[in-house]
Specification:
The chain has about 300 residues and is α+β, with helices and mostly antiparallel strands. The protein has two domains: about 25-135, Sandwich (Immunoglobulin-like); about 185-300, no CATH class. It has helices spanning about 5-20, 195, 215-220, 220-225, 235, 245-260, 270-280, 285-295; strands spanning about 25-35, 50, 55-60, 65-75, 80-85, 95-100, 115-120, 125-130, 130-135. Strands 1, 2, 3, 4, 5, 6, 7, 8 and 9 form a nine-stranded mixed β-sheet that branches. Strand 7 (about 115-120) and strand 8 form a beta hairpin. Helix 6 (about 245-260) runs parallel beside helix 8 (about 285-295). The longest helix is centred in the first third of the chain and has 20 residues, at about 5-20. The protein is flat.
Length: about 300
């Protein structure tokens, strides 16, 4: 039996199972992320970070053309939000915006974003929103372009001539040596395969995410539909033998590497996005994405694994 035919059989079985389970229930889901745009440049950069506790509102126009808030949700620790609408309402003319909340960014939300339909299947709809931004009152001082040149020096009169027989000054003591800067491993290129992340002596490198966190919380709703709501990252990083478990193992490893090294081949958001796109595609897409993660986790043969045993 050839591979395309097997893929069609698997897809047909999945569609039949989904129809049997979800055929009598229609829901619309809206998902997205809120970031702090520290440089106020209107885009996501390395200086920006997800915001926790921000309120996001979905606003839609009624028959009179007046906009009203249909639903409001608060972002989680990863800056993500998810809204569920019962039935299949018409969300084509709706948009999402930051409506309030803390988060530590300091100011009001950025521009609103329109909802984009990702897929519609069995009366179930999934919408996504481009990243929403919250901006401070002024760009941070470390942002590119925020440097202000120093004012020109004032012209001072020439100093008076020295005395005829000046008294000699004592020599200055030697300057103390400058302290050595501490190592910054986050700025060094590092990539570690999945078996390194499962070793007990390297458990301290699980910093942003922990082994007991749920796959559904970290990767979102699409991953929850595939792997359930109880699977942890520790279970996911040890998966093998199945294309989807292999994808989860390599995606979890790539996410850990992206948080551990700024020079890793993937950004954390890129890992999550590619993971969800693969889950919505074919089995070939799943294997291709898993292979890309695996190559990055190996450092492409150039970046070593810079792990030191935890103390």
């Amino acid at each position: 039996m050839d591979w395309p035919f097997c893929s069609k059989l698997l897809l047909a079985a999945f569609l039949l199972a989904a129809a049997a389970i979800h055929g009598v229930r229609a829901d619309a889901m809206v998902t997205g992320t809120v970031f702090c745009d520290q440089c106020k440049d209107g885009r996501i950069s390395l200086f920006d970070y997800p915001l926790h506790g921000m309120k996001v509102a979905v606003t839609c126009a009624d028959s009179n053309g007046e906009y009203t808030v249909w639903r409001e949700e608060t972002t989680n620790w990863f800056g993500n939000y998810a809204m569920r609408f019962e039935g299949t309402p018409d969300l084509s003319g709706c948009y999402a915006r930051v409506s309030g909340g803390g988060g530590g960014c300091g100011a009001v939300g950025g521009p609103a974003r329109s909802l984009r339909l990702m897929f519609r299947m069995f009366d179930m709809e999934m919408f996504t929103v481009d990243p929403l931004l919250s901006e401070p009152a002024q760009p941070m001082s470390f942002c590119p372009g925020s440097y202000k040149p120093a004012p020109p020096p004032l012209i001072t009169p020439a100093p008076p001539p020295p005395l005829a027989n000046p008294s000699p000054l004592p020599p200055l003591p030697p300057a103390p040596p400058l302290p050595q800067l501490p190592p910054m491993p986050f700025l060094e290129a590092s990539a570690c395969p999945h078996w390194n992340w499962t070793m007990p002596e390297y458990r301290c490198y699980w910093k942003v995410v922990t082994p007991d966190m749920k796959v559904a919380v970290v990767f979102g709703l699409i991953a929850a539909r595939r792997f359930g709501t109880d699977m942890t990252l520790w279970q996911g990083i040890q998966g093998r033998g199945d294309p989807y478990r292999t994808l989860l193992r390599e995606a979890t490893t790539a996410l850990l590497n992206s948080y551990n090294s700024l020079q890793f081949g993937y950004h954390p958001l890129g890992v999550i996005q590619d993971m969800n796109l693969a889950l919505m595609g074919s089995v070939r897409r799943v294997l291709f994405t898993a292979l890309g993660f695996r190559r990055a986790n190996s450092g492409y043969g150039r970046a070593p694994c810079r792990f030191n045993p935890c103390k």
